[in-house]
Sequence to fold (529 residues):
Amino acid sequence: MSPDSSTAVTGDPGAHWWRHAVIYQVYVRSFADSDGDGIGDLPGIRSRLGHLAHLGVDALWITPFYPSPMADGGYDVADYRDVDPAFGTLDDARGLVADAHALGLRVIVDIVPNHTSAAHPWFQQALTAPPGSPERARYLFRPGRGDGPPNDWESVFGGPAWTRVPDGEWYLHLFDSSQPDVDWSNPEVRTEYVDVLRFWLDLGVDGFRIDVAHGLVKADGLPDAGDNDQHGVADTQRLPYFDQEGVHEIYRSWRAVLDSYSPPRVAVAEAWTRDAARTARYVRSDELHQAFNFHYLRADWSAADLRAVITGTLAATTPVGAPATWVLSNHDVQRVVTRYGDGPVGVRRARAATLLTLALPGSVYLYQGEELGLPEVLDLPDSVLQDPIWRRSNHTERGRDGCRVPIPWTRSGTALGFAPDGTTPWLPQPSGWSDLSVAAQTDDPASVLELYRTALRLRRDFDQAAELEWLESAPGVLTFHRGGLGCAVNFGPDTEILCGPLLLTSEQCEVDGAKLLLPQDTAAWWAIP
Ligand code: NOJ
Fold:
């Protein structure tokens, strides 16, 4: 059944909107808290949609808001067809979709198909059912090898990927032990997740972000990985539990479901692969629409590295007819300001990276707070850390909470506008964040926020279909044309370049006719008549 057309988006009605969309990631726990429990929620998102419309994005992706014990911030789903009471109700979800559509914003939700929560009824049934039962066959239960686990696989969060149950069998969990992996060779599993897709599509969402899209299928026989630093090498080499051929058949069947809606719905893969060519396999024309370009996110702040990643990405995606999907940050990685050097240098580079990213052909994902230039919070007290990585690494890795601190909206208030005054947010906000709030940056032409607003407004006028053409430039400078846009980024010492009428620069620059003095770590956009 197609969703009620009365909730359809009023913006660009094109079925191909996603090919050049800018999509804003809302990490629901940290965006806006409407009821003062310190945790962000769906009514909070509804109340702040105006910010996203004003920013100029095309869509939002909302991280999981389903009933969950929150062992992994909601990526441990206990019920795929409801809303956790901490985040609101199904009616709030419907209202959010309708409000977003009325503002011309599309809504993408997360689907978590690699694992359920241990609190999911399926896993609870599996625990009390005997080995070999249909209840256990929805997961990957196996006998051990001697006293040890069935193989040498490691959890992404640290420690072994297997946990033993009282009758002696072990179950697989590539993440926390409270996130058992489901068995995608079981047809019941396949049917269930298609039904979940339909549930949210019928509610009116425009698409899905697929969690651990590269992990659903495991190599036959669950062979040893044969490596004792599996997550150190996960991005560079083949592992028997990631990026297996069998995942593609699943996405072909999902594409048929997405295409059966009018207009067709979309999906983006969270697929960590060893190179751009492997990522491009997820976006072949009968599979998914987008796959995050994590090779771009992982690149160093260097002209050579970024040029190599951009060129490699376009070379891999163009032949399959898919757009590239650029991403600099998300809720799993250190914030880009800090990754690029932190402090004023990090902010300066992140500003230049923003203009570079928004000038590239394809689609872009922004992570909440990126538009405010927020840094990683590196000094959260141990007592507030919630990421399971902290526990599973025996307190040797602090995990991802530093990029998940609730974002500041106002200059004052106990939660800087994230929550009603008097509320203590679930992670403490640094005192200096009042100056980084939306209110403090609005109308300040030098602010990161106004840079994003201007860049996103100008981007709407670009010829989105135009291809990128590299121009010769001085060492340490990247220069390209794309349709009517010229873009240069200087990673090295201050350099003079030739440009057309300036549209935007990431820092103040001296310009003399067609000559622009481009300082280090600065980007410029100009018009090509
Ligand atoms: C990727 C999600 O982005 C991350 O936050 C989560 O911990 C893992 N998948 C497991 O679901």
